[in-house]
Structure formats: C-alpha cells, structure tokens
Amino acid sequence: MSNEKVLKDLQNAILKYDSEAAVNAAKAAISAKMDPLVAIEKGLVPSIEQIGAKFEKMEIYLPELMLAADAMKSALVLLLPLIPKGAKGAKATVVIGTVQGDVHEIGKNIVSSMLMANGFNVVDLGVDVKTINFIDEAKKNGAKVIGASALMSSTIGSQKDIVDYLAASGDRRKFAVLVGGGPTTKEWAKEIGADGCGMDAIEAVKLAEKFSKGR
Fold first, then answer.
1. Which residue has the higher pLDDT, 37 or 142?
2. Measured between alpha carbons, how far is 110 from 130 in angstroms, rounded to an integer?
3. Interval 89-114 mean pLDDT
4. Mean of pLDDT values over 203-210
5. How many other C-beta atoms lie within 10 A of the C-beta of residue 101?
6. What percent of the chain has pLDDT over 90?
7. 60 contacts: CB under 8 Å, gap ≥ 6
8. Which residues touch 62 (CB under 8 Å, ≥6 apart)?
C-alpha cells in the first residue's frame, strides 16, 4: 500500500468517525514503516482540524466530535509510542483529570483525545483526582499544563484548591492551570487565578497551545 493511500485512509477514518478503520489505517502505516509523525501530522491532524472547524460552526455536534475523538485516539494509541522522545513536532506534556469528588469523564475524555490528536503528551489521571495528585503527577512528568475538569457546581471549588496549593508551595509559576466543565466560566477562572477556561474541547486545545511553552 502506498504512503499516499495510507494517509488518505487515516484522514477518511476520522472524517467518517470510524475507529476500526482508524486502527487498520494506523497498522498499515506501521507496516509501511511510515514515520509516525508524518502519519499523525499529514494523516490525522488535517481531518481533526476539519472536524474542529465544523464543530465551531455548529455543522456537527458533540456526539460527532466524540466519535471523531475516539477514532483519533484509537489510531494514536498505536502511533504515539513509536515517536522518539524529543522528536521534532512533539509538544508539551499536559496532566488532565476530573477533580476530587467528581466522577464525570466524558468532557475530560474528549479534551484528552483532542490534545493527543494535536501532538501533546497527555497524562490522563482519570476521575476523582486529589489536588496533590494533579501537582505530583505534573512534576513527575515534566508537565507545562494542568487541566482540571469539574462537572458539578459542588466540585468546582477543587479547581481553586489546585491554584491555591501551587501558590502556597511557591510552584504557581511552573504550571499553567486550565479549568473546564459545565459549571465553569471564564469569570470563574479569573476569580480563582487560573490561566484560562476551555468552554469546549477546541478552545481547551488552543489554550494548551498557548501555554505549552510555559507561563
């Protein structure tokens, strides 16, 4: 199979929200000994950018975005481990999770997949994550960005706890703290001293891009 055909198959798999096809195309890329960065940047990224543009224009909605993100993640699981550490094109590490007391993960999973699709190294801590775990994992993994999701009004206070803990420990300038989730707003982010609020997955990726080189 030619490289051109492999790239086209990768693109089409995302545009058609087809995880199985994405896996098959990724395997074909590996079999063809294609540079994994080329497969990602020329095969997957153009399609996810199209999906993101359609979502912003409300030409597609959350279910389609989720399916595209799932397809992207399926291919990236195979391709990302093949990229040498420090390779050109690799971006910063983002630690992401849903805050303590909150077990909602759909929004967090979409953002995680979209970050991966855009070349970030993502450490997904899951749900009900303690404040200290966000910070410890960020330090351990050399992260530039901490993403804290909260889907309940009763748990958004934990987003503030992360910012406060960093400030108290003298580590605030080391990390950009981004918040997101249904109850969060840009005003809330400003109030608690966070660096930004991603109102959707597309905006979250843009904020990560902005802060990926440090604050």
1. 142
2. 21
3. 86
4. 92
5. 15
6. 63
7. 51, 54
8. 110
Q: Is 18 helix (H, G, I), strand (E, B) or coil?
A: coil
Rounded to two decimals, the pTM is 0.73
Cβ-Cβ contacts under 8 Å for 197 (sequence gap 6 or more): 178, 179, 180, 184, 185, 186, 188, 189
Cα distance between residue 181 and residue 165, in whole Å: 21
Angle at 48 between CA 178 and CA 52, to 5 degrees: 60
What is the pLDDT at residue 89? 56
What domains are defined for the chain?
Answer: 3-82 (1.10.1240.10), 93-211 (3.40.50.280)
- Contact of 146 with 134, CB cutoff 8 Å: yes
- Say how far apart CA 160 and CA 183 lie, in whole Å: 13
Give the amino acid at 13: A
What pLDDT, on a 0 to 100 scale, did the predictor assign at position 111? 87
* Tokens 């749900």 found at: 127
pLDDT in tens, 19-64: 999 999 999 999 999 999 899 889 998 898 898 889 878 999 888 9
- Residue type present at position 165: Y
> In which residue are the tokens 């960093």 written?
166
DSSP notation for 192-204: HT-SEEESSHHHH
What is residue 137's predicted lDDT score, i.e. its pLDDT?
97
Q: For tokens 């950018």, name the residue.
A: 49
**CA–CA separation, 182 vs 152, rounded Å?**
7
